[in-house]
Design a protein that fits this description.
The complex is a heterodimer of chains A (669) and B (394). Chain A is an alpha+beta fold and 669 residues long. A 5-stranded antiparallel β-sheet of chain A has the order 2-1-5-4-3. A 5-stranded mixed β-sheet of chain A has the order 11-12-10-13-14, with helices on both faces. Chain A has 19 helices and 14 strands. Chain A has helices spanning 2-52, 58-72, 169-213, 218-231, 294-324, 334-347, 361-386, 411-426, 450-466, 483-498, 500-519, 527-535, 546-549, 557-563, 566-576, 580-587, 609-623, 635-644, 652-663, and strands at residues 77-82, 89-94, 120-124, 141-149, 152-161, 237-244, 247-255, 269-275, 278-286, 351-358, 393-396, 401-407, 436-443, 472-474. In chain A, α3 (169-213) runs parallel beside α5. In chain B, strands 14, 15, 16, 17, 18, 19, 20, 21 and 22 form a 9-stranded antiparallel β-sheet that branches. A 6-stranded mixed β-sheet of chain B has the order 1-6-2-3-10-11, with helices on one face. The longest helix of chain B has 16 residues, at 116-131. With 394 residues, chain B is α+β, with helices and mostly antiparallel strands. Helix content of chain B is 26%, strand content 32%. The chains are: A alpha+beta (669), B alpha+beta (394). The A-B interface holds A 32-44, 46-47, 49-51, 67-68, 70-78, 94-98, 100, 136-138, 160-163, 165, 171 and B 156, 159-160, 163-165, 215-216, 220, 222, 269-276, 297-301, 303, 379-382.
Chain lengths: 669, 394
C-alpha cells in the first residue's frame, strides 16, 4: 500500500510540477510577447522618423509612411488622406486593392472632434466612422489620427486591423506623436513639391521668355503670350488685344473653346500691356488668380515681359508694313504688287489688271512743284480707293503709275471698273485738271505669265496714252498695234520665253534707275527715256541662246562673248523702233567708268549718265535676285559689292545715290 | 532512385514525387512522374520542381517539362528538398497540383534591381490576370533568386497587388548555401535573377501560415547605423562585435561559413503583435557590418534569438494548425517553405518537421524545400521571414 501511496504521491507531484511548468511556460510566453510589444513600441516613433528622413518627394514619402506605420502598428490597411475633411484625397495607402482606392476628392464627416489637442481616436470598427469603401476589407478595429501642424490640419491618417486585436491606449499615444511627425514631414514634402513645381514652372517661363525674346512675328508673339497665360499661369481663357488704326483687334486667344469663352465683358479682366507707361496692347483674362497671390504676382511679371515682346513685334510689324507700303499714298508698293501678281498667276486665278498712269504728271511737277505733285498723287490714290471693291488690290507701282488687281473680273467688268476709276480721278476737285489713262489686261486670256500679262496691260496703257489720254484701253481689243508695236511685242514675248525672269528684273531696274536719277537731280524730261531704256536694257538677250541664259553655272569664254553682244543687239532693235536715245543708253549700259566694260570700252563721262545709272541699277537688282547660277545676296552684301567696285566698274556718284536711297527710301517710287 | 509516395485516388488534388538520380533529365522527369502518380497532366495543371542547384538545370528542367506535358512547370533551386516520405538533400522534389478546382496564373520575370517592387508588382498583377477570378479564394505564391538585393522590396511589390485581403506565401531559392547563383523556373525558362509569381484562384479555401519556434536570447540592441540590407552598428558599436558579444556562444569551427555558423543565433525584430520577425545573418563585412537578406531600418530594436529542436518542431506544428484553421474543410495537401537554418538546427531530427506538419494536417501529402528566406503573410503588411517555416495548405 505504502508503495502504491508513494507511487500515487509521486504521480500527483509530477502532475503538479507539470502543471506549474505549463503555467510558467505560459507566463514566460506572455512575458516574451509583452516584452516584444514593449520593445517594438519603444522604437516605433524613431523608426518612423528614420524612414521619413529618407524621402523628400511627397508621393514616395506618403506611400512609404503608409506602409511603415501600418507595419509598425500591425495594421492591415494604412491610409493617408490629405486635404480638408470635405475634400480629402488618398495620397498614400497600404493594403488596399488599387481599384478600391477612391479617385479624386471625397468627404469624411464626423471627425471634427479630432483637434490639435486630441488628434487621435481608436476603437472597434463597428460603430466607428469608416468610409464604406473599406467594408470589403472586414475591418475589426480602426484608429484615426489628424495630421496637425500647429492649428492647421493637413489631413487624416487611418489604420485598420482585420484581426480582432484592438488598438490599445499606448498605441493611441504613439499614434499621436507619429501623426505629428508624419504631418511635419508631409508639410515639408508639400513645400518641397511646391518648390519643385515652382522651379519647373520658372524654368518653363524662362524658356517662354527666351522664345518671346527671339520672336518678331506679331501673330506668333500673340499666340505665345495667350497660350502662356492659360497653360502656365492657370487662367481659364486669355485674349491678346492690340490697337490697329483705332480699332481693338484680337490678335490671339487661348484656353477655353471659343464657343465656351465668356461673352460677357464683365467676366474678362483687362490687363494693359505697357512699356514706359504706354499700353502697347491688352491681355484679357478670364479666371484671374486672386490679387496678392503668388500666381497673380507671377502673372503681372509675365505681363511685363509680354508687353516688351509685343512692343518689339509691333515695331517689327510696322517696319515690315512700311517696307511694303508707299508712305506718301499709303498704298502697297511695287514689290508687293509683283508678289501678288506672281502668286495669282501661279495659282491660275481669274483676275484683271488695271494699269494706270497720271496724264502729264511731269507738267504738274514742273509747273507747281513737287509738293503739289505729291498732293496730286495722294488725291488720285484716294479717288482710286473709293472706286474699288474691298477684295480688290491697289498698288503704286511707279512714280505716277498705279495698278489695280481685280479678282474674278473679266475684260468687260474690269473695263467698267477702270472707267469708274478714270471718272473718279477726273472728278477730283483740286484746282488742277487731273486725268489718268488706263490699260486693262485679264488673266489668263491676255497672258498666262506675270510678265506677259503686265506687258499686255502696259501696252494697253500706252495705247490709251497714244490715243488721247484720259481713257481706258483693253488688251487685245482696243489696242491697235502698229507694225512697230507688233515687232516690239514679238520681241518682248520672245525675251520672256527665253528668260522669264528678265522682264521682272527689268521692271525693278527701271524703278531703281528712275529713283537714282531723281536723287542725282536728273531733270524729269529725261526720265521717260531712262525708264524705257532701263525696262528694255536686256532686250538684246533675244539673240542669246536659251541654253546660255538659263545656265546654272559660270559661262565659258565663248558663251560670255555671245552674252556680251546683247547691248548691241538691244540697241539695234530700239533704233529700229525709233527709240534713238534709249538705244544709246542700252548700248552703253555695260561700259565701266574705268574703260574695262563692253562693247566699246568707253570711260567716265564718255558713257551716258543714264547708261551708268542703268549699269549700277542692273547690277544691284541682279545681285539681290535669285539667278540660275547663284542665290540672291543680302542687300547689305550687294551694297558692299557696289562700293568695292565704285570708281572702277561703277560711277561713284551713282553708287553713292544707291547707298543714300537704301538708307532713306525716296517718297516717290 | 524513385519512389511513389501517394496513391492515385479519384478525388486526389495532387501529390509529391522525388528523385535522387544523378542524371539531370531523369531527376526532373522521374520526380514529376512520381508526383503525377499515373495521372494524365492537363493543360492548366501546375507542376512545381525543387531541384538541387548542382544539376545541369537546363536538362533537368526539360526533363520535368517533358513529363509534365501540357501542365505549367514552375519552381526553384534549393538548399535541399523533402516530402513527408523522404528528405532529399541532393535531388529533385516535384509537386503536382490539379487544376480541377484551382486556376493558376504564372508570370516569371527578370528582376530589375532599380525597381524590384515595381517589377514584382507587375509580375503579380499579370499572374493574377492570367489566373482570372472564376473562384472566390486567392493566394499569391512567390519564389525568387536568393541574391535579390532586398527581399522586402519583393514583398512590397506583391503586397500592392494582394492588398491586405489576399495571403502570400513562398520562399527564396537556394544553391546549397554557396550563394553564388540560384535559379527559378517558369514559363518555359530558367532565370538566375528571376521573380516567379504564381497566382492561385481556388474554389476551395486555402490556408497560409508561418511557424516559428524562436525565443529571445540576448539583450535588446538598437540598430544605430544601417545601409540597405547591412547593419553597420548596433548600440553604437560595430554590428559584428555587438552580435558576437550577445550571441553567447562561439562561432562554429573553421570550415563552416559565417552565415552557416550564425544560423543558430539569428536576429529577431520585435513587432507590435508581440512576435519576433526573424532575420538570418547571411554574411559579415570587413568593416564589421552584418549582411541580411532584408533591409532593417535604423532605430529598429533587434535581439539575438535562439531555439532548440523541440521548439522548432512545436513552431512547425503551431504553424500547421494556424493554417488549417483557415480552411473550412480538411487539408488536401501542403507545400512547405522551410528555412535552411531549421534543417541545420534540426540535424538528425530534420525529417520530423515535415512529419509534424503532415500529421497536424491529418497526414495529407506534404513536401517542399529548404529556403533562403520565406514569404508568409496573412495579416500585416510585409510577410518577410527568416528561420521560419511558411505553409500553404490546399
Amino acid at each position: 500500500m505504502a508503495g502504491a501511496d508513494s507511487s500515487a504521491g509521486r504521480e500527483d507531484a509530477l502532475a503538479r510540477l507539470q502543471g506549474e511548468n505549463e503555467l510558467l511556460r505560459g507566463r514566460l510566453a506572455d512575458a516574451e510577447r509583452y516584452t516584444a510589444q514593449t520593445l517594438a513600441r519603444a522604437t516605433r516613433l524613431s523608426q518612423v522618423i528614420a524612414v521619413l528622413g529618407q524621402h523628400s518627394d511627397l508621393d514616395t514619402l506618403v506611400e512609404r509612411a503608409a506602409l511603415e506605420v501600418a507595419d509598425l502598428f500591425a495594421a492591415d490597411v494604412g491610409l493617408f488622406m490629405l486635404g480638408p475633411d470635405h475634400a480629402l484625397n488618398v495620397e498614400g495607402e497600404s493594403g488596399m486593392r488599387p481599384a478600391d482606392v477612391p479617385q479624386g476628392r471625397f468627404a469624411i464627416d464626423g471627425l471634427g472632434a479630432l483637434t490639435a489637442q486630441e488628434p487621435v481616436t481608436f476603437g472597434e470598427a463597428a460603430g466607428a466612422i469608416l468610409p464604406s469603401w473599406l467594408d470589403a476589407y472586414g475591418p475589426k478595429h480602426v484608429a484615426w489620427a489628424r495630421l496637425m501642424v500647429g492649428d492647421e490640419s493637413l489631413g487624416l491618417m487611418l489604420l485598420v486591423r482585420r484581426i480582432d486585436e484592438p488598438f490599445e491606449r499606448v498605441d493611441g499615444n504613439e499614434l499621436r506623436a507619429i501623426a505629428y511627425r508624419v504631418a511635419l514631414a508631409i508639410e515639408n514634402g508639400l513645400l518641397h513639391r511646391e518648390t519643385q513645381d515652382r522651379l519647373v514652372r520658372l524654368n518653363r517661363m524662362q524658356i517662354i521668355s527666351t522664345k518671346l525674346a527671339g520672336t518678331l512675328e506679331l501673330e506668333t508673339v500673340g499666340w505665345i503670350v495667350a497660350d502662356m497665360f492659360t497653360s502656365e499661369l492657370r487662367v481659364a481663357a486669355s485674349k491678346v488685344l492690340i490697337d490697329r488704326d483705332g480699332k481693338i483687334l484680337t490678335l490671339a486667344r487661348a484656353g477655353l473653346d471659343p464657343n465656351d469663352m465668356p461673352d460677357d465683358d464683365s467676366r474678362w479682366e483687362m490687363l494693359p500691356l505697357e512699356t514706359t507707361g504706354e499700353p502697347v496692347g491688352w491681355i484679357a483674362l478670364a479666371g484671374m488668380p486672386p490679387r496678392g497671390s503668388e500666381d497673380h504676382d507671377l502673372l503681372l511679371h509675365m505681363a511685363n515681359i509680354s508687353a516688351l515682346a509685343l512692343d518689339k513685334a509691333l515695331a517689327y510689324d510696322r517696319s515690315q508694313e512700311q517696307a511694303r507700303t508707299d508712305s506718301l499714298t499709303g498704298l502697297l508698293g511695287h514689290r508687293v504688287f509683283h508678289e501678288v501678281l506672281g502668286k495669282k498667276t501661279a495659282d491660275g486665278e481669274k483676275f484683271s489688271l488695271v494699269l494706270l498712269d497720271i496724264d502729264d504728271f511731269k507738267q504738274i511737277n514742273d509747273l507747281y512743284g513737287h509738293q503739289v505733285g505729291d498732293e496730286t498723287l495722294r488725291l488720285v490714290a484716294d479717288a482710286l480707293r473709293v472706286g474699288l471693291r474691298s477684295e480688290d488690290g491697289l498698288f503704286r507701282v511707279g512714280g505716277e503709275e498705279f495698278c489695280a488687281v481685280l479678282p474674278s473680273l473679266g475684260h468687260e467688268a474690269a473695263y467698267e471698273v477702270a472707267e469708274r476709276l478714270r471718272a473718279g480721278v477726273a472728278s477730283i476737285v483740286s484746282g488742277l485738271p487731273v486725268t489718268v489713262s488706263l490699260g486693262v489686261a485679264t488673266h489668263p486670256e491676255d497672258g498666262v505669265h506675270r510678265d506677259e500679262l503686265l506687258a499686255q496691260a502696259d501696252a494697253a496703257l500706252h495705247s490709251a496714252k497714244r490715243t488721247g489720254k484720259n481713257r481706258t484701253s483693253v488688251a487685245g481689243e482696243h489696242v491697235s498695234l502698229t507694225a512697230l508695236d507688233a515687232d516690239r511685242h514679238v520681241s518682248l514675248t520672245l525675251l520672256h520665253e527665253r528668260d522669264p525672269d528678265t522682264l521682272v528684273h527689268s521692271v525693278e531696274v527701271a524703278t531703281l534707275a528712275v529713283d537714282i536719277a531723281r536723287h542725282l537731280g536728273v531733270e524729269d524730261d529725261r526720265l521717260g527715256n531712262l525708264r524705257t531704256a532701263a525696262k528694255l536694257h536686256d532686250l538684246g538677250k533675244i539673240g542669246v541662246p536659251h541654253s546660255i541664259l538659263s545656265k546654272p553655272w559660270c559661262l565659258d569664254e565663248e558663251e560670255y562673248r555671245i552674252v556680251k553682244t546683247h547691248p548691241i543687239v538691244g540697241a539695234e532693235l530700239l533704233r529700229a523702233w525709233g527709240l534713238t536715245e534709249p538705244a544709246r543708253f542700252v548700248h552703253e549700259h555695260h561700259e565701266h567708268v574705268d574703260g574695262s566694260g563692253y562693247p566699246a570700252g568707253l570711260k567716265g563721262e564718255k558713257i551716258a549718265l543714264e547708261s551708268r545709272i542703268i549699269h549700277v541699277a542692273d547690277a544691284f537688282i541682279a545681285m539681290t535676285l535669285d539667278r540660275p547660277y547663284r542665290r540672291a545676296m543680302e542687300r547689305e552684301e550687294a551694297l558692299e559689292e557696289l562700293v568695292r567696285h565704285s570708281g572702277t566698274q561703277f560711277d561713284a556718284s551713282v553708287v553713292d545715290a544707291v547707298l543714300a536711297l537704301e538708307r532713306e527710301p525716296v517718297s516717290q517710287p | 532512385m524513385t519512389k511513389q509516395i501517394e496513391s492515385l485516388e479519384a478525388t486526389r488534388l495532387g501529390g509529391f514525387g522525388h528523385s535522387s538520380s544523378e542524371d539531370a533529365p531523369s531527376a526532373g522527369r522521374d520526380s514529376v512522374q512520381m508526383a503525377l502518380a499515373g495521372a494524365e497532366p492537363q493543360l492548366g495543371d501546375l507542376v512545381i520542381i525543387f531541384p538541387s542547384a548542382t544539376y545541369d538545370l537546363d536538362s533537368l528542367h526539360r526533363g520535368a517539362m517533358d513529363a509534365a506535358g501540357p501542365a505549367e512547370v514552375v519552381g526553384c533551386t534549393t538548399v535541399g528538398a523533402f516530402t513527408s516520405e523522404e528528405q532529399v538533400p541532393s535531388g529533385c522534389v516535384a509537386a503536382y497540383i490539379s487544376s480541377r478546382d484551382i486556376s493558376f496564373g504564372v508570370r516569371h520575370v527578370e528582376r530589375d534591381d532599380a525597381d524590384i517592387a515595381g517589377c514584382t508588382r507587375a509580375a503579380a498583377q499579370e499572374a493574377r490576370d492570367r489566373a482570372g477570378d472564376r473562384y472566390p479564394h486567392d493566394v499569391l505564391m512567390l519564389m525568387c533568386d536568393a541574391l535579390t538585393p532586398d527581399q522586402r522590396e519583393l514583398a512590397r511589390g506583391a503586397f500592392a497587388v494582394t492588398s491586405s485581403v489576399i495571403s502570400m506565401v513562398g520562399g527564396s531559392a537556394g544553391d546549397d548555401m554557396r550563394f553564388e547563383a540560384t535559379y527559378t523556373f517558369g514559363e518555359g525558362r530558367m532565370l538566375s535573377n528571376g521573380i516567379l509569381t504564381v497566382w492561385l484562384n481556388s474554389a476551395q479555401t486555402m490556408g497560409v501560415s508561418v511557424g516559428r519556434g524562436w525565443r529571445p536570447f540576448g539583450k535588446p540592441m538598437l540598430v544605430t547605423r544601417a545601409e540597405g540590407t547591412t547593419i553597420l552598428e548596433l548600440d553604437g558599436q560595430p554590428a559584428l562585435d555587438a552580435y558576437l558579444a550577445a550571441r553567447g556562444m562561439a562561432l562554429n569551427p573553421d570550415g563552416v561559413s559565417f552565415g552557416e555558423s550564425a544560423m543558430e543565433r539569428p536576429l529577431g525584430i520585435p513587432n507590435a503583435r508581440g512576435r519576433y520577425d526573424m532575420r538570418q545573418i547571411h554574411d559579415k563585412l570587413p568593416n564589421g557590418g552584418l549582411v541580411l537578406t532584408t533591409g532593417v531600418p535604423e532605430q529598429t530594436v533587434v535581439q539575438v534569438m535562439c531555439s532548440d529542436t523541440d521548439a522548432l518542431l512545436e513552431g512547425s506544428r503551431t504553424g500547421a494548425e494556424l493554417g488549417e484553421a483557415q480552411l473550412d474543410r480538411d487539408a488536401r495537401m501542403a507545400i512547405v517553405f522551410s528555412c535552411c537554418a531549421r534543417r541545420a538546427l534540426l540535424g538528425d531530427r530534420v525529417a520530423e518537421e515535415v512529419d509534424t506538419i503532415s500529421s497536424a494536417l491529418g497526414g495529407v501529402p506534404t513536401g517542399g524545400f529548404y529556403t533562403c528566406g520565406e514569404f508568409g503573410r496573412v495579416t500585416g503588411s510585409t510577410g518577410i521571414h527568416n528561420s521560419c517555416v511558411a505553409l500553404l495548405m490546399l
